[in-house]
């Protein structure tokens, strides 16, 4: 199968290893990667800020380029939710309404693609560490993702998974929210970090780099030894 | 910036830094979550119960015109006087008119968020009446001269020690850390008031259209005393409280108790159908029901967000909201706080002054997941944001997003931006987190990763 890869702007610029891991995993499973180099952002910052006209301008080339793909894999639960759930809303009552709905059906967040579309959970990875999962809100509540990441981690050699109490609590990122209301965003992040630290884990794993940017940003500032890692990087570890 | 948003930010900054507050609320709501989940398990299917509840409220709200008329007609047939108030001022005037006509001196009140919404207590006190809240939590915050902290748990921000100090100051009671003793102190003070009060004012949890009855659910028995002892009873309720049928209570009463407080059923559930009827031994001589619109019909006219009128004020969305848990109930500056407050306040009190509440959310969706009547709360926050931009966008923000759209649509510009960011990276490190840092909103408390040495796009190009 040819898999079209959507790499969000922040993964491209700051977390390229996440994208590279996804490419290597999907290719190892025998599929071909199609990466549209000219695409940058899904438009979510504008959409979430209420600027839907501007969001449509950014989203239109994404929709046009991806709509004829066989399957689209998105390297983020949040951007995945944007393409899968919010594009149909953003393009409702426009000439692209049908295309947005068709694209929605072909979109998969990375871990969901492995588990649901390919039916693969064991990728032969080894990661001898104690990890705890942060369920990114968009993946969890917009896309209904919860079990897949745990099934995948369950097959990783040497990995010990410990659940934190606040696994499903928002990390406080929320896109522009983090900059508009930094005091609230930071307090939410502190609650998340404390809950993760309580497990005694070495790593917080998530399928969303945007959440991890928030969590790692706080941990580094606090001088904590706890680290963050994207699910794809663990699944690509030997 | 409007005063409302400035006040919100000031209060939020103050409260999020109060770690005692954070721990208190987290502990209280942690216990609530355990109890709620246990009670949810007692439903054959909580998700199907939510679906039925959502459909029932959909029917109630979409046929409000018929249901309200039926509700009022049936109540009036039993001698109740039903009043229709379009605005908060009208509702206040109606109620003041009733208590003045009765030559009342003392008013006893049970819990009613609608009364908070129209600032009824302040109006009655200004007119010279003594008003006493009979719900324990409400009584406590009344003594403190502050609004309820939470729509269901008005005094949840206080410890037993805080309450003991408060009672010592106002009631002259001895210090105690026993919740039972504290309750007895309040009870002794309140029992006097029930007997002397001339008028009892209540809210309502549901208005049954089929039978013309007001359903009130409470844990302390105070609403029963408020309604049974004074000669005149007034119930103030929003028009959205309607349920079509009596049988709907079989679902809504346990659902409200479960979602609201993790209880199987609230302790006292009473239906009021009118004043004392011939041959009856108790009940008020006069019963008035005041139905309040106060811009609810404007929300009704919005097909996208009409379901916000399904709200049964259980408080479940507040209890799971990470924003609420960190900023606390008073920071919102609204009658209805938490996610439901952020959704409806812009409709009830003006979008431009209250839109900041819709922006003050990470859109995590915990509220929508918790709502027993399936209000699409966090999507409504997005719609409020869109509506506020369509109506009147902040010029600076509009420029930023125009530039954003332009840059993201031009691969050349995106690449150039990346080079500039790389070039500025080391310079940025020097001022990171200080007042010179343009990204200080982020970097004051968080590190920012640099632009990668090899971005994904560069990796892909090299690979080809």
CATH class of the domain at 43-294 in chain B, named Alpha Beta
Unreliable parts of chain B: none
Helix content of chain A: 40-55%
CATH T-level fold name of the domain at 43-294 in chain B: Rossmann fold
Number of domains of chain A: 2
Can you tell me the overall shape of chain B?
globular
- Main structural class of chain A: alpha/beta
Major sheet characteristics of chain A? 4 strands, parallel
Distance between the termini of chain B: 50 Å
Question: So how many helices of chain B?
Answer: 23
- Rough outline of chain A: globular
Report how far the terminal alpha carbons of chain A are from each other. 25 Å
Which stretches of chain A of 5+ consecutive residues score pLDDT under 50? none
Biggest sheet strand line-up of chain A: 2-1-3-4
Give a quick account of the main beta sheet of chain B: strands, pairing sense, barrel closure: 6 strands, parallel
Question: Keyphrases for this structure?
Answer:
heterodimer, A: alpha/beta, Rossmann fold, 2 domains, 4-stranded parallel β-sheet, globular, B: 464 residues, alpha/beta, 6-stranded parallel β-sheet, 4-stranded mixed β-sheet
Written overview of the protein:
The complex is a heterodimer of chains A (238) and B (464). Chain A is of the alpha/beta class and 238 residues long. Chain A is built from 13 helices and 8 strands. In chain A, the strands form 2 sheets. In chain A, strands 2-1-3-4 form a 4-stranded parallel β-sheet, sandwiched between helices. In chain A, strands 6-5-7-8 form a 4-stranded parallel β-sheet, sandwiched between helices. Chain B is an alpha/beta fold and 464 residues long. Among the domains of chain B are: 43-294, NagB/RpiA/CoA transferase-like (Rossmann fold), CATH 3.40.50.10420; 396-463, no CATH class. Chain B has helices at 3-16, 19-40, 46-62, 64-77, 88-101, 113-117, 120-126, 136-143, 160-171, 179-196, 222-228, 249-261, 296-300, 316-320, 322-327, 338-349, 351-359, 366-370, 377-392, 395-408, 411-431, 440-443, 456-463; strands at 81-85, 106-109, 130-133, 199-202, 206-208, 213-218, 232-238, 242-243, 268-272, 286-292. In chain B, the strands form 2 sheets. A 6-stranded parallel β-sheet of chain B has the order 1-10-7-4-2-3, with helices on both faces. A 4-stranded mixed β-sheet of chain B has the order 8-5-6-9.
């Amino acid at each position: 199968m040819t898999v079209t890869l959507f790499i969000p702007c922040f993964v491209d610029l700051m977390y390229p290893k996440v994208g590279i891991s996804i490419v290597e995993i999907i290719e190892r499973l025998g599929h071909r990667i199609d990466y549209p180099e000219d695409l940058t952002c899904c438009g979510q910052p504008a959409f979430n800020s209420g600027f839907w006209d501007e969001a449509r301008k950014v989203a239109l080339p994404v929709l046009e380029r991806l709509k004829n793909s066989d399957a689209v894999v998105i390297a983020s639960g949040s951007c995945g939710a944007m393409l899968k759930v919010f594009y149909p809303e953003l393009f409702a009552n426009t000439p692209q309404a049908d295309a947005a709905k068709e694209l929605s059906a072909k979109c998969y967040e990375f871990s969901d693609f492995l588990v649901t579309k390919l039916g693969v959970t064991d990728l032969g990875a080894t990661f001898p560490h104690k990890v705890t999962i942060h369920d990114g809100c968009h993946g969890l509540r917009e896309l209904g993702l919860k079990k897949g990441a745990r099934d995948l981690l369950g097959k990783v050699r040497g990995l010990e998974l410990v659940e934190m109490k606040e696994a499903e609590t928002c990390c406080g990122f929320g896109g522009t929210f983090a900059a508009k209301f930094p005091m609230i965003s930071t307090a939410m992040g502190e609650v998340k970090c404390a809950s993760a630290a309580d497990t005694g884990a070495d790593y917080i794993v998530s399928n969303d780099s945007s959440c991890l940017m928030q969590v790692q940003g706080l941990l580094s500032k606090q001088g904590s030894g706890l680290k963050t890692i994207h699910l794809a990087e663990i699944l690509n570890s030997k | 910036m409007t005063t409302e948003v400035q006040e919100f930010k000031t209060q939020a900054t103050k409260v999020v830094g109060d770690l005692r507050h954070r721990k208190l609320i987290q502990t209280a709501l942690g216990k609530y979550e355990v109890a709620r989940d246990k009670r949810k398990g007692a439903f054959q299917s909580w998700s199907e119960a939510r679906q039925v509840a959502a459909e029932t409220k959909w029917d109630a709200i979409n046929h409000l015109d018929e249901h309200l008329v039926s509700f009022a007609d049936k109540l009036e047939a039993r001698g109740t006087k039903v009043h229709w108030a379009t605005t908060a001022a009208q509702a206040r005037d109606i109620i003041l008119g009733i208590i003045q006509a009765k030559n009342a001196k003392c008013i006893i009140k049970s819990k009613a968020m609608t009364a908070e919404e129209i600032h009824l207590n302040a109006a009655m006190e200004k007119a010279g009446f003594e008003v006493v809240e009979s719900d324990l939590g409400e009584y406590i915050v009344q003594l403190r001269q502050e609004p309820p902290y939470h729509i269901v748990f008005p005094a949840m921000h206080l410890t037993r020690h805080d309450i003991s100090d408060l009672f010592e100051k106002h009631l002259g009671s001895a210090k105690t850390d026993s919740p039972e003793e504290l309750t007895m102190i309040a009870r002794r003070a309140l029992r006097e008031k029930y007997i002397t009060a001339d008028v009892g004012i209540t809210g309502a949890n549901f208005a049954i259209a089929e039978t013309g009855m007001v359903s009130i659910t409470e844990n302390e028995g105070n609403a029963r005393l408020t309604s049974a002892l004074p000669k005149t009873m007034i119930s103030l309720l929003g028009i959205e409280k309607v349920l079509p049928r009596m049988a709907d209570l079989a679902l809504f009463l346990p659902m409200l108790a479960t979602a609201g407080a993790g209880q199987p059923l609230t302790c006292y559930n009473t239906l009021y159908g009118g004043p004392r009827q011939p041959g009856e031994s108790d009940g008020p001589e006069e019963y008035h029901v005041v139905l309040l619109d106060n811009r609810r019909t404007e929300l009704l006219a919005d097909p996208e967000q009409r379901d916000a009128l399904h709200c049964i004020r259980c408080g479940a969305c507040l209890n799971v909201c990470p924003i609420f848990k960190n900023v606390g109930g008073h920071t919102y500056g609204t009658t209805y706080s938490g996610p439901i407050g952020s959704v409806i306040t812009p409709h009830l009190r003006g979008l431009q002054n209250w839109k900041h509440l819709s922006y003050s959310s990470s859109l995590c969706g915990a509220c929508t997941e918790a709502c027993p009547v399936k209000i699409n709360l966090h999507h409504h926050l997005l719609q409020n944001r869109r509506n506020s931009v369509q109506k009147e966008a902040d010029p600076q923000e509009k420029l930023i997003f125009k530039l954003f759209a332009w840059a993201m649509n031009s691969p050349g510009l995106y690449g150039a931006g990346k080079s500039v960011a790389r070039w500025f990276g080391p310079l940025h490190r020097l001022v990171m987190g200080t007042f010179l840092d343009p990204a200080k909103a982020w970097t004051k408390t968080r590190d920012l990763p640099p632009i990668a040495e090899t971005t994904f796009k560069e990796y892909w190009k090299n690979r080809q």
